[in-house]
Amino acid sequence: MRNPLNPAVVGIKPSGIRKFFDIVHEMKDAISLGVGEPDFATPYHIREEGIYSLEKAKTHYTGNAGLPELRTEIANFLNRRYGLSYEPKSEILVTVGGSEAIDLAIRAMVCPGEEVIIPQPCYVSYEPCVILTQGVPVVIELQEKDEFRLTAEELRAAVTDKTKLLVLPFPNNPTGAIMTEEDLREIAEICVEKDIVVLSDEIYSELTYEQKHVSIASFPGMRERTIVINGFSKGHAMTGWRLGYACGPAEIIKQMTKIHQFAIMCAPTMSQYAAIEAMKNGDEDVAMMRDSYDKRRRFVVHELREMGLPCFEPYGAFYVFPCIREFGMTSEEFATRLLSEQKVAIVPGNAFGDCGEGFLRISYAYSLENLKRALDRLRAFITKLREEKNA
Amino acid sequence: MELAMRILESLDQNARLTAKELAVMLGEDEAKVAAEIRRLEEELVICGYPTLIDWDKTDKHQVTAMIEVKVTPQRGKGFDEIAERIYQFDEVEAVYLMSGGFDLTVMLRGSSLKSVAEFVSGKLAPMESVLSTATHFVLKKYKEHGIPLVTRQEDERMLITP
User: Fold this and answer.
1) How many Å apart are CA A41 and CA A236, to the nearest integer?
2) What's the whole-model pTM score?
3) Does the first or last residue of chain B, that is N or C, have fewer Cβ atoms within 10 Å of its Cβ?
4) Is pLDDT at A117 greater than 90 in this prediction?
5) CA closest to B162 among chain A residues
6) Which residues on B lie below 8 Å from A298 (Cβ)?
7) Contact between chains at B159 and A347 (C-beta distance less than 8 A)
């Protein structure tokens, strides 16, 4: 039989830590600090709108780009929260999660051989999406000394004649890093100067602490060269509804909508109705959840530092990214032993790029009780490791 | 938000947080937080730290009643004096002054229907200012202090997700 497969797909390397993931998923009684989604259920008034939409038999397709009312509310939200302005009819596309929007944006823009700059550690999907379009991923290894922010020097060094797109994943999963207004200003200037388009993945934009999120699209000359990706999963605790969106110049959104139309048709209708409620009346819920994450963030950072695990203070998302290099083992070895000896599941930093080696991603999207229990076990584990080392 | 409010909102969710934990979680100095808690206690902003217990899941038998009470307010004292006379009884859990068709809601905890009935007929109804009472028994408590008592939401997330 002929080879039924596309070599481009086969060639995408599977996540290096899949083995670790498989072990974790078989361990039913482990406690986890490993999830990338909120512990909150979707606020009930939002769920209820989804239920009501079913009662009213809103069970059909919507227009490809999403319900007009939802797009209008998204535009209002982005304007009131980040000072961005997008035309609901032509510049906003509702997608199946932010992850679909990432895929669409890359497919709509990247031609074979064009380079896409991806700062790592980062979410896992950018690189494979670029490879599938036969683009060339150019990884920038972000540095702990910069608190995992992208610096202007790093960007300049990575830009070539073939650079088409910069992926800007902040607030960042897995590091919790954010880009300040000053950081972004420098990046924006380079993008304008070098004529680079930006895919700004702002899915965690509602979860920043001690300072408000700034979108790179709000800088001079950036709106016309930025696709902003956002969604409902993180801020509004709606992961399972699978709903996100992309905003940007009409000519790019139009082409993304074309792919979306053929591949997906439209985002789930029930989710779209629920999301209208989230946009209209969800700001207070988000503030409450943000406040709760913020307390846990401080608690976890404090506990890790008390244990003597170095970590910079993260101001975004719900992750802390401590360094475990002192133990002389890889992140995966550390995570695997921690799992088997203390039954705590934590994602090794290298799951998010090679430069995440030597780090762990600790999620604090858990109850305080769960955090305490898991961190106590982590403390016992590293105490033992230090004893072994000194023996 | 001022520190006192942040402390209160945190303790409202979880009264077991220590001053040290609160200080860490609020990014404040521990001594400052402890002093603020003391002040709030002294000023009776924080009046106590009870535990939310669903007694129905224990062997202890008790009933809760909600009693609507109509009273005659007293000159110069309004409803406060009669309310105080009622709330001093140990079995009284809560007393609220109400708007609408009656004046006071009295929440009562007793070991049996009979003990509640005895309280109402023997203590509450005979008070001079009390004009009438209507007693409703609580059959089941679903939610208190914002916390569902009946079911617990399990963490259904996968152990690890990117």
Assistant:
1) 9
2) 0.94
3) N
4) yes
5) A36
6) 24-27
7) no
Q: Which domain holds residue B83?
A: 55-144
* pLDDT value at residue A16: 64
Pairing, β A244-247 against β A226-231: antiparallel
Tell me, what CATH number does A20's domain have? 3.90.1150.10
Q: What is the DSSP string of A246-269?
A: EE--HHHHHHHHHHHHHHTSS--H
Between CA A368 and CA A377, with CA A373 as vertex, the angle to 5 degrees is 140
CATH number of the domain encompassing residue A117: 3.40.640.10
Tell me, yes or no, if B159 comes closer than 8 A to chain A by beta carbon.
yes
Residues B125 and B62 in one domain: yes
- Per CB-CB distance under 8 Å, the chain A contacts of B155 are 39, 370
Using the predicted structure, report yes or no on whether residue A17 has a pLDDT greater than 80: no
> Does the beta-carbon distance from A298 to B25 stay under 8 Å?
yes
Task: Report if residue A53 sits inside a domain.
Answer: yes
Nearest to A295 among B25, B153, B159 (CB): B25
CA separation for the pair B36, A1 (Å, rounded): 77
Work out how many domains chain A is built from and give that number.
2
Domain assignment present for B158 = no
Final residue belonging to a domain, choices A266, A281, A296: A281
CA distance A390 to chain B (A): 31
Residue A351 tokens, joined: 């799951």
A368 — contact with chain B (CB < 8 Å)?
yes
Answer yes or no: do A202 and A92 share one domain: yes
Residues A222 and A123 grouped into a single domain: yes
User: Which residues is A93 bridged to in the sheet?
Assistant: A246
Confidence of residue A274 (pLDDT cuts 50, 70, 90): very high
Residue B155 lies in a domain: no
* Same domain (yes/no): A235, A362: no
Of residues A171 and B146, more confidently modeled: A171
Contact B26 A295 (CB under 8 A): yes
Q: pLDDT in tens for each of the 162 residues of chain B?
A: 799 999 999 999 999 999 999 999 999 999 999 999 999 999 999 999 999 999 989 999 899 999 999 999 888 889 999 999 999 999 999 999 999 999 999 999 999 999 999 999 999 999 999 999 999 999 999 999 999 998 877 888 989 888
User: Residues B35, B80: one domain?
Assistant: no
The answer to whether the bond into A174 is cis (omega within 30° of 0) is: yes
Please count the residue pairs, one from chain A and one from chain B, whose beta carbons lie less than 8 angstroms apart.
50
The pair of structure tokens assigned to A247 is 């905003």
Q: Does residue A390 sit within a domain?
A: no
Cα dihedral A38, A203, A265, A222 in deg (nearest 10): 170
Single out the residue in A246, A281, A316 at which a domain terminates.
Answer: A281
